[in-house]
Design a protein that fits this description.
It contains 13 helices and eleven strands. The chain is α/β, with parallel strands linked by helices. The protein has two domains: 183 residues, Rossmann fold; 101 residues, Orthogonal Bundle (Helicase, Ruva Protein, domain 3), CATH 1.10.8.80. The strands form four sheets. Strands 2-5-8-1-9 form a five-stranded parallel β-sheet. Strands 3-4 form a two-stranded antiparallel ribbon. The chain has a two-stranded antiparallel sheet with strand order 6-7. Helix 9 packs across helix 10 and helix 11 runs antiparallel to helix 13. It is globular, with a radius of gyration of 21 Å.
């Protein structure tokens, strides 16, 4: 009975805070045509205090989306263009000698912002990628003898261009695991494309103005952490993740030779967190199986290692996840 009352109170609390997300969505819709999945994914990552790895061809409003979101939330935005000659100090900062003070002073890098766009992250060497991913994971940076915490909220959106792989440094699987979501976005439809043309040829776009503050986002993040996950849903999440490790035990013997290694425990945590955030976006104080299924592909696609046999047969991680979701019993 208490659980019912708590969920009811939580639903009321979510309803009272839903205007925060509604204002952000309205602001995003004014600037971003289509790409609803991209916008929702950024909001899920923001609510979970996680990060997003985005894959899509150039010109799909990836940069515009994160920049617009940063302005709407009144957060500090920085963009890092990853190139082969980039150094870790170019991201996190370094010590600079001051002749006037005769001492070293800390010069903070662009990682110190609420919203960071890591553009074409696979264009920089491993040591630069590691510097960014360490800051993402530890939420702090050490420069010299001093350690600096990251601002809150802190969201990194890294992009990868799937069509140009020459001269790139693909992210190791162990490092892509640090991203809450890997989102693959495609082209707009014809109606959306016409709307994009009209929006961009009419002249200057309307300025984006802040609609909420970072403290509002931190308040909403605390509410998302209270969203109820029943034990049956927890079992469902664990069953999905374990099916990637031992597919034959759920009747998917065909996948045994397709999957080289399954998802880590971080996948289970991320799936639970993202499901909570998705439930919040739907205005609910509890998670249902549809929430898990809605975020499963984005959470899992970069956490499953496929074998050479899978690559030879053009089998993708998304197809494997779909097979698992079709097979694992829904509570």
């Amino acid at each position: 009975m208490n659980e019912t009352v708590n969920i009811r109170e939580l639903n009321d609390l979510i309803a009272s805070k839903s205007n925060v997300l509604n204002m952000i969505r309205t602001g995003m819709d004014r600037r971003i045509v289509g790409q609803k999945h991209l916008v929702d994914s950024l909001l899920i990552a923001l609510l979970c205090n996680g990060h997003v790895l985005l894959e899509g061809v150039p010109g799909l409003a990836k940069t515009l989306a994160i920049k617009t979101l940063a302005t709407l939330v009144e957060g500090q935005f920085s963009r890092i263009q990853f190139t082969p000659d980039l150094l870790p100090a170019d991201i996190v900062g370094t010590l600079i000698y001051s002749i006037k003070k005769e001492t070293f002073e800390v010069k903070k890098g662009p990682i110190f912002a609420n919203f960071v766009l890591a553009d074409e992250i696979n264009r920089a060497p491993a040591k630069v990628q590691s510097a960014l991913l360490e800051a993402m994971q530890e939420r702090q940076v050490t420069i010299g003898d001093e350690t600096f915490p990251m601002d809150n909220p802190f969201l990194v959106m890294a992009t990868q261009n799937p069509i140009e792989q020459e001269g790139t440094y693909p992210l190791p699987e162990a490092q892509t695991d640090r991203f809450l979501l890997k989102v693959v976005i495609g082209y707009p439809n014809k109606e959306e494309e016409k709307a994009i043309i009209r929006q961009n040829i009419k002249g200057a776009l309307d300025p984006v103005v802040p609609v909420v503050s970072p403290s509002d986002i931190l308040d909403v993040q605390k509410i998302v952490q209270k969203i109820y996950i029943d034990e049956k849903i927890e079992n469902y999440i664990v069953d999905i993740v374990f099916a990637t490790r031992e597919p034959s035990k759920v009747g998917l013997e065909d996948l045994q030779s397709i999957i080289e290694y399954g998802a880590s425990p971080r996948a289970s945590i991320s799936l639970a967190m993202a499901s909570r955030a998705y439930a919040f976006l739907q205005g609910r104080g509890y998670v249902i199986p549809e929430d898990v299924r809605a975020v499963c592909h984005d959470v899992m696609r970069h956490r499953i290692g496929l074998s050479y046999e899978a690559e030879a047969n053009n089998i993708t991680a998304d197809e494997v996840i779909t097979d698992i979701l079709d097979k694992v019993e829904v509570p």
